[in-house]
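Hi R.,

Here's the chain you asked about this morning:
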Amino acid sequence: MKLVISVLGVATLATALAGAGAFAAGQNPPAGNVANGKQLFEKQNCYYCHGTAGQGGRDGARIAATPFTLAQFTRYVRRPAGAMPAFTAKLLTDEQLADVYAYLKALPAAQPPAQIPILDRLR
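And here is the predicted structure, written out as tokens:
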């Protein structure tokens, strides 16, 4: 059952991200403020599912150093798939989402398992 839900969630995410972005063509997205983005990430309780450093958790995907564009990120946050609640412009403005995005882009990407020494014991 979990596998079916996971596959459905990934397919829905891919479809959502393939759609149009939140910013019009030729329009530059806001630059984003990393410090404010971190505060918003904490204030909006994003860390509860996505982890304090965007590393993911039981209920949320890893979003640190996200490969998504700002437009893709904004679209998904506004109309998410699965259990994630929607964050409308009344909850987070586009500028605030740009700040959260800047914070996530500033986080280090996950290391490959081969580069994590403690995992050598498990191999």
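One quick note: The two ends are 29 Å apart (CA to CA).

Cheers,
M.
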